[in-house]
Write a structure and sequence with these properties.
- This protein has 322 residues and is mainly alpha-helical.
- The chain has 10 helices and 6 strands.
- It has a two-stranded antiparallel sheet.
- A hairpin with a 5-residue loop joins strand 1 and strand 2.
């Protein structure tokens, strides 16, 4: 990978094209240009048969320059660095800062390409590509361009591998509140890219992250647990807690306990009201008279409503025995 820095100070990781793919792209471009040149030459010969030899020679030279030199320049300018051969090989010409090329870049590459590709049969271009660290020929060096690969193997980025099944739920009691976001980000980046690291480097990095994480949680790494598996298990535990918090699973018991007194007996008992007990809270029917106890006996009577005469009080529906 080649790291390019844009004008906004953004680092771009691009994969430079190597000599085999570039040679194949140039060969395809030359075949297409030669086919067009042959077709144009046939048309010129048939249409200028009445002209003298000097005029025919001038037209032949002009057609050669326009097709084999001007054609690639125009194609790279209009397609922003993607000729027919480069499109077939998945390549593109970009500037040193990663941006698309313009006419001046294509013009310099095309003019120098006549010397190092057409006149020397590609020998100079091959030598320059071998010497350059990023595989650039002389035209790329003078134009300030780079040929990169557009089609690269697809890798699974951003995927955190799951921990071994025997570690599932083992760290449910860890206190993760003291772990900073920077450490979580470092652990996540390591887990997503550990397959691309050297085994020895990856193991040492996992040990360092695991020790930092154990120091923040206050619990050491269990014996016999690989550091990478420990990191994956802790990350999975954090994701599970965030999912429960986001979907409100933890609030269900609280809601159930808050709603329990509405249908239960005395507070904290969870039993239906016994005979002689007053229902608590919303369990009493709305509009029903409140029942209070007499100070002197066990007989209970309806409570007096303020401002209502005794004769106009609503009946309770109780009929005394005869």
């Amino acid at each position: 990978m080649s790291e390019l820095v844009t004008g906004e100070a953004v680092a771009l990781e691009l994969r430079p094209a190597r000599l085999p793919s570039r040679a194949l792209a140039v060969l395809l471009d030359l075949l297409a240009a030669m086919a067009v040149y042959v077709a144009v030459t046939i048309v010129l010969v048939t249409s200028t048969a009445s002209l003298d030899e000097a005029a025919q020679t001038a037209l032949s030279i002009a057609s050669f320059v326009l097709v084999l030199v001007g054609g690639p320049i125009a194609v790279e300018t209009l397609s922003h660095g993607r000729s027919l051969g480069k499109m077939a090989c998945g390549l593109r010409v970009v500037r040193d800062d990663g941006g698309p090329i313009r006419f001046r870049h294509a013009l310099v590459r095309g003019l120098i390409g006549v010397i190092e590709i057409l006149m020397t049969f590609g020998i100079v271009a091959c030598i320059a590509s071998f010497v350059s660290a990023r595989g650039r020929r002389l035209g790329d060096v003078f134009a300030g361009t780079l040929v990169v690969r557009e089609r690269i193997p697809v890798t699974r980025t951003g995927f955190v591998p799951p921990p071994p099944p025997w570690l599932a739920g083992r760290f449910s009691g860890l206190d993760l509140s003291a772990v900073p976001d920077g450490l979580w980000l470092a652990v996540r980046q390591y887990l997503t890219r550990m397959q691309q690291l050297d085994p020895q480097v990856g193991w040492s990095m996992a040990e360092r992250l695991a020790s930092d994480l154990a120091e923040r949680t206050g619990a050491p790494v269990p014996q016999g647990v690989p550091p990478a598996a420990y990191l994956a298990a802790v990350v999975q535990e954090r994701q599970a807690r965030e999912a429960r918090r986001a979907f409100g699973s933890d609030s269900a018991p609280a809601a159930a306990s808050a709603a329990a007194p509405a249908t239960s007996g005395p507070a904290g008992t969870g039993k239906p009201p016994a005979v002689g007990e007053t229902p608590v809270g919303p369990a009493r029917l709305v509009g029903a008279p409140e029942v209070v106890a007499e100070p002197s006996g066990g007989e209970r009577r309806p409570a007096e409503s303020p401002g209502v005469p005794a004769g106009e009080r609503p009946g309770t529906g109780f009929v005394p025995p005869a």
